[in-house]
Design a protein that fits this description.
mainly alpha, about 55% helix, about 130 residues, rod-shaped, 2 helices, about 5% strand
C-alpha cells in the first residue's frame, strides 16, 4: 500500500459501495370463483325454511303459554266459586233448619195451623179444600 495523506493505519478502511438491492417478488393474485346462482338460492331458501320453522315453533310456544295462563286463572276462579258455593250451602242449611224457621215465624207473628190444604190437579183451576 502506498502512503498517501498521512498514516495508513489511522485511516478507516473504505467500504465498497453497495448497490441497493431490490428483491423482485411476484404477487400472486388469486381470484375466487363466485358462488353459482343456484347454490346462492339454495342457501337462501334453506335459511328461510329455518326461519319459518323457528317462527312456527315460537308461535306455538306462545299459544301454549297463553293457554296455561288461562288454565291457572280459571282454576283460581273455580276455587273461589267453590268457596262461595260451600258458604251458600251452609247458609241454606241454616235457613232451612226448623228451629230457625220457627224463630223467624215468631218474630213476624206468624201462627202455625194444624189444618192441611189439599190441592187437586187436572182441572181448570186448582181447588183448595179443608
Amino acid at each position: 500500500m502506498a502512503y498517501m495523506n498521512g498514516n495508513l493505519a489511522l485511516q478507516p478502511k473504505r467500504k465498497p459501495e453497495q448497490k441497493p438491492s431490490y428483491r423482485e417478488t411476484k404477487k400472486v393474485v388469486v381470484k375466487r370463483k363466485s358462488i353459482p346462482v343456484q347454490e346462492k338460492l339454495l342457501y337462501l331458501f334453506t335459511i328461510l325454511a329455518c326461519v319459518v320453522v323457528a317462527g312456527v315453533i315460537i308461535f306455538r310456544y306462545a299459544q301454549i303459554y297463553q293457554m296455561e295462563q288461562k288454565i291457572t286463572t280459571m282454576t283460581k276462579q273455580q276455587a273461589q266459586m267453590q268457596l262461595q258455593i260451600d258458604d251458600l250451602i251452609s247458609k241454606r242449611e241454616i235457613a232451612n233448619d226448623p228451629k230457625v224457621l220457627k224463630d223467624k215465624a215468631a218474630q213476624l207473628d206468624y201462627v202455625m195451623s194444624d189444618e192441611r190444604i189439599q190441592v187437586q190437579t187436572g182441572g181448570d183451576a186448582p181447588v183448595a179444600s179443608k
